[in-house]
Amino acid sequence: MTDSQLNLYILQSLNMALGSQMQGETSYTNSFDVKIKTEGFYFIPRLPAGYVIDDELYQKIFLIASASLYPRYTLLKQTSAYFVPLNTDDIHVQRALFFPWKIGISKRLIISNLEQFASSQSGTRIPLMENLSIDYDKVTSIAIAGNSGSGKSYALTYFLTVLKPISDLIVIDPKFDTPSRWAKVNDVKVIHPEMNRSKSDFVSELNEALSKSLNLINQRQAILYENPEHHFTHLTIVIDEVLSISEGVNKAIKESFFSLLSQIALLGRATKVHMLLVSQRFDYHSIPVSVREQLNVLMQIGNINSKTVQFLFPDLNTEGIVIPNGKGTGLIQIIDNEHPYQVLPLLIPTYYTRKGIL
Ligand SMILES: Nc1ncnc2c1ncn2[C@@H]1O[C@H](COP(=O)(O)OP(=O)(O)OP(=O)(O)O)[C@@H](O)[C@H]1O
Questions:
Q1: Are residues 214 and 240 in the same domain?
Q2: Do 259 and 210 contact (CB within 8 A), yes or no?
Q3: Rounded to two decimals, what is the model's pTM?
């Protein structure tokens, strides 16, 4: 399909579906035009117009175009109207609404041998989907949320395996489940509850480990002060079922836990200390606000609706985002300077790994 055919196709889709929104104005009455760019398309209104150019119109066009372009392009959802200035002297058409896109749709990676796959990766790239990867040098903290059975443990095992060659790991596993089995097979330090010990004991031990990591951050800061170019080994603190940790422990211990988490989240970026947090849901009871603000890879798997995305994606209206069916699917947002602002459909890789972990 050529650009001009695509142009015409989008114009027709909008002419037919926008009707009521546009008070009957169409591109045939010269009320608007569409222009294809490499990174997306422009909707160019001719002003003054008999319709209002607002967030509602933007989202409406998004809805129509998103379905019309699927699966050739994935439109990248914006939280509000995305205006761009156009290079012309004609005031009537000096602005456009921009609809950025990605070519194709999100595709799941299928990995026949996860361990081999992880060791064959070079550098700090973590592949997530066929056309999406993250650079671990550019992100600090990762969160995975999802209802029971959505594929969180499966996703976590994937991350643990691909992170192992890139980063030192400390695994905290309040359920003494999959992550502990993974850690045992892979000879990685794990903190889990023990028989005959109280919940507060477990959280105290965990606070101890966080406090050591904070000391490490302080040492690394001193090194950076002398040599800002110093290269550190990544350290990732992995916490499964974060929500369950602060439940049922005394207030002082919970407060220390929150305070340590906040400090690590805030100071870890420059010193290569990361957090990977997994929880059925995240809210202000499970993590401190400052930790939420430092999360820069956000994943919600399983049920996607306005309630489940509220905390990780507070500005997101999920309307018009095509979420694939199946296990380990949902939404992802990566906030770094490499990826444009975008919330994308996510499919966690499907893989084969050693027996006895999952
Ligand atoms: N990306 C995926 N590809 C293929 N199968 C998957 C994927 N994610 C999950 N599954 C399947 O779904 C099952 C349930 O996933 P998992 O145990 O990870 O869910 P969970 O969210 O951790 O649930 P719970 O919170 O109850 O432990 C897995 O055993 C696996 O077979």
A1: yes
A2: no
A3: 0.89
Question: Count of domains in the chain?
Answer: 2
Instruction: Give me the domain span that covers residue 27.
Output: 3-103
CB proximity list for 9: less than 8 A, separation 6 or greater: 1, 68
ipTM of this complex prediction, to 2 decimal places: 0.96
Determine the Cα–Cα distance for residues 324 and 74; give it in Å rounded to an integer: 12
Query: Are 144 and 277 contacting, i.e. CB atoms less than 8 angstroms apart?
Result: yes
Q: Return the best residue to mutate from 154, 240, 351 for the ligand 1 pocket (most ligand atoms within 8 A of CB).
A: 154
Q: Tell me the binding residues.
A: 146-153
Distance CA 198, CA 182 (A): 24
Which residue's CA is the closest to the ligand 1 atom numbered 4? 350
358 in a structural domain: no
Q: End of a domain among 79, 103, 127?
A: 103
Is 357 within the bounds of a domain? Answer: no
Looking from the CA of residue 150, the nearest atom of ligand 1 is 21
Distance 350 CA to ligand 1 centre (A): 10
pLDDT in tens, 206-259: 999 999 999 999 999 999 999 999 999 999 999 999 999 988 888 999 999 999
Is 236 touching ligand 1 by the criterion CB < 6 Å? no
| Residue 265 included in any domain | yes
Residue nearest to atom 16 of ligand 1 (CA): 151
CATH assignment at residue 135: 3.40.50.300
Distance (angstroms) between ligand 1 centre and the Cα of 314 equals: 25
Same domain, 181 and 274: yes
Please give the DSSP secondary-structure letter assigned to residue 129. Answer: E
